[in-house]
Amino acid sequence: MLNINNLTVTLGGNKILNGLDLSVPAGEVHAIMGPNGSGKSTLSYTIAGRDGYEPSEGDITLDGESLLEMGPDERAAKGVFLSFQSPPAIPGVATMNFLRTALNAQRKARGEEEMSSAEFLKVFREHAKTVGLSPEKLKRPFNDGYSGGEKKRMEMLQMALFEPRFCIMDETDSGLDIDALRMVGEVVNSLRGPDRGFLVITHYQRLLDYVKPDRIHVLAGGRIVHSGGPELAKELEESGYEQFASEAA
Ligand SMILES: Nc1ncnc2c1ncn2[C@@H]1O[C@H](COP(=O)(O)OP(=O)(O)O)[C@@H](O)[C@H]1O
Ligand SMILES: [Mg+2]
Residues in domain ABC transporter (predicted)? Predict the structure, then answer.
């Protein structure tokens, strides 16, 4: 499904990602763990196609098709979704209109029928309930005046709504209480399926109690330096990244 080959990304004169290889087959959930500043967000932005995060080497393909020539909106239409570590607010933009427009733009780009207002409202309300955002909150402009936890709930609402083929979650669990964490687990597990892949960036074992990953990778020194099964999260929590970070040097 998602294949990353020899990915090199330079920011401000530093090679943040340096020949990174990673493969996530359809139907699998892979977790990425790694020290602060190791390039986890850089990797997620590069996959999603954020401006300024163009690789100097390597390729990223989704189902064999290179994403690199596509803009972020085209990648989204192909089903690439990024849940931001720090989701931005968009004051002045009505939340439901914004999301319906975004969803219908994606559907249109895929040659699918647009969703009517009534149909949208129905699914939107269902997902809002699942993620625990009140109708009152959702009347506010997009993420405007939301707490950190509420913004993460909004990210999960979008993920449920867009039904992306490939979901990247950049520290969605950071700063969440136990109930919100369980909600994130519910959303991921309800979307899990043979045609969908996940890349879950996290620092904590806790999320992985709710979302059982197929593989865990350690990112250090600009590449994946170690990979293992779900048991690796506990090992990392106990012994830290030091042992693997030195392998990267
Ligand atoms: N736009 C940028 N320009 C220059 N350096 C950047 C930029 N974005 C991130 N960096 C640097 O790249 C490194 C990796 O950052 P990041 O990907 O956010 O790490 P992580 O998400 O693993 O904590 C850091 O040293 C950070 O300062
Ligand atoms: Mg980050």
Answer: 2-246
For 155, counting Cβ atoms within 10 Å of its Cβ (0-12 exposed, 13-18 middle, 19+ buried), the class is buried
Give the number of the ligand closest to the Cα of residue 169.
2
Residues with CB under 6 A from ligand 1: 11-12, 16, 34, 36-42, 52
Find all residues with CB under 8 Å of 122, minimum gap 6, and list them.
Answer: none
Architecture, CATH, for domain 2-248: 3-Layer(aba) Sandwich (3.40)
85 C-alpha to center of ligand 2: Å?
A: 6
- Can you give the pLDDT at residue 237? 87
Cα–Cα–Cα angle for 206, 84, 243, rounded to 5 degrees: 50
In the predicted model, residues of the chain with pLDDT beneath 50 are none
Largest CA distance in the chain: 56
Continuous segment of H or E residues that includes residue 128: helix 117-131
For residues 38 and 219, the answer to whether their CB atoms sit within 8 Å is: yes
Q: Which atom of ligand 1 is nearest to the CA of 219?
A: 22
Q: Tokens at residue 41, please?
A: 């967000």
What pLDDT, on the 0 to 100 scale, is given for residue 247?
A: 63
